[in-house]
Design goal:
Largest sheet: none
Radius of gyration: 42 Å
Helix content: over 70%
Shape: rod-shaped
Strand content: under 5%
Oligomer: single chain
Number of helices: 2
Structural class: mainly alpha
Number of strands: 0
Length: 110
């Protein structure tokens, strides 16, 4: 058997290095492709976050308006009935409830 010459060993080493370089180049291309995909996902997510933040601001404004309207309506209602009228209305409602209870209990006894 012939011993491999220095030239043959050098060619084998170069072929091995070339194969490793090709493999590393392929891995690099794959990493670049994955990075681009990840950047697209990040950009899409940032747009969604911005859109949702705008929706939150809009909903908060609507909530503030609704609360202001509710407070205004409650103020008008409290102005309509003074304390004496409120107490009178409560007494009338209690009497009405008592009569309804009486009639319901009378119906059960029959």
């Amino acid at each position: 058997m012939a011993e491999p010459t220095k030239y043959d060993m050098l060619l084998n080493d170069l072929n091995s290095i070339e194969a490793q370089a090709a493999m590393l180049a392929n891995k690099c291309k794959e990493l670049i492709r994955r990075n681009i995909e990840q950047e697209e996902i990040v950009n899409k997510t940032k747009r969604e976050v911005t859109m949702l933040s705008q929706k939150i601001v809009t909903l908060e404004r609507e909530l503030e308006k609704a609360q202001a309207q509710q407070n205004e309506q409650e103020g008008k209602l409290s102005n309509l009935l003074n304390t004496k009228e409120t107490e009178t209305l409560k007494i009338k409602l209690q009497n009405l409830i008592s009569r309804i209870d009486y009639h319901l209990s009378a119906d059960r006894q029959v």
